[in-house]
Amino acid sequence: MRIRLVKLKQLSGERASIYSAIYEDDQISLFDKFINENINSFTSELNDIVLRLKTIGSKTGAREHYFKPHEGKPGDGVCALYDEPRSNLRLYCIRYGTTLIIIGGGGHKPKTIKSLQDDPKLKKENLIIREISKMISEKLSQGIISFTDDYFDFEGTLDLNTTDYE
Amino acid sequence: MNKIETYNSEAIDSILRNLDPKLEKQVEFRMKLAAKIDNARKKLGWSKKLLAEKLSKRPSEVSKWLSGTHNFTSDTLFEIQYLMGVELINVDDKPKVQSIHFSFEFTQKEAGSAFNYGHNRPFDYTKLYSKSQKLTFQYPD
Question: In angstroms, what is the C-alpha Rg of chain B?
Fold first, then answer.
């Protein structure tokens, strides 16, 4: 399954670039899907997430303490935007320092399970973002993609071949 | 080199269009406050765990404070600023007076052309001025 990285115009700014990804058969990004899936049930929480991401892009940068680390394998940068235990939504990301993040999808955090990984939807979204991180790491090591000098953007071929989790 | 593809999200646009600008400022305020506390923590060389211990809080509570989502009480802000020596809220009416003392030295070079003053003698001389001055600024003025 091919997926390409895109820079989100409304959220990127002077302090950080915010990317998402689009599957080749889709018209919208993973983050847009996350919005569409949750806008009716968790409107205010979603508004807060969008505003936090916009603030990260334009005012503060992607400081480490705004995220929950270690949501993937050691060193792969997979994290989640901070969410309280009692909050309803989980959004998975990959953080590359304070200047570049990729936001994927996520979903509703069920209260009845012990680990979020036990929820099929969250598990799938977590695997997708892990896979994207893995592909980017490989392409970075192969020199197919690289960071710009200011570390705000990627350069190179931003089309990735990933496992199909759909 | 491939050009970065910029994506214009209608879903994000729709959310941002309908939000109260005050809410945007509130989110920004919370996130900047968290950043200020974290900067102070780093400056003191404290881990998040140590900060939690010093305030008799759980590490998860400190993580929440630093997440940029927390709605602090004034007592908690006072505790943090008292412990860390950083000003998070300023409740004083009096303006803050800051005195800055400095001295400076400069060289002034003046040069004229041969045609100045209608004679053929060009002038090019350098004068050295030295002064020392004390200035006091009041903020806000």
Answer: 28
